[in-house]
Automatic annotation (TrEMBL):
One of the Pfam families matching this protein, by short name: FMN_red
Gene Ontology cellular-component annotations: cytosol
Name of the protein in question: NAD(P)H-dependent FMN reductase
A Gene Ontology molecular function term of the record: oxidoreductase activity
Domain of life of the native organism: Bacteria
Matching InterPro entries: Flavoprotein-like_sf, FMN_Rdtase-like_dom, NAD(P)H-dep_reductase
Source species of the chain: Chitinophaga polysaccharea
Amino acid sequence: MKIAILIGSIRQGRQSHKIAHHLQQALQQRGLTIDLVDLAGVQLPLLEERVGKHPQLPHTAQELSNRLHAADAIILVTPEYHGSFSGVLKNALDYFYAEFNKKVVGTVGVSAGKFGGINAASQLQQVILSLGAFPLPTKLLVPEVYGAFNEGHELTNEHTTRSAQKFIDDFYWLASAVQEKKQLQPLAV
């Protein structure tokens, strides 16, 4: 299976990339292929029209579309800004629809506070449903992110470590089940 992990923060001093790298390593240890998509490097312009409808689609949008199509499942990682997920992630998601069709999508919320981005992760689950995808019921929340990792960006918070393991287990189980079903009964194009 191939998993795309989207890092939905581009601001200076961001912290959400740390949990994305942790998930990448943990999923690779399970033998999965990971495509780590850092929106800070993709630089999508503000949405004018979706993929498939845009008369002159930006090259970066087409490349990201190809990467998302190639993924069997997706994980969205976002900080919580003003009680919601990041604007750069929303802009990116608005470009796509078919790329998410019947794929499992996990949500990861990150915050400096004690609630770990619960609002961002919960709101993302609603968007995932609107994209025709299957939101993983288990959310990974990373509270107090500034103290959750050491200087080497290794996860050191015990609670977050246990939460991450449960998230990975649940994500892998559901994504595998959906992938198996798709192999038995391929989607009509």
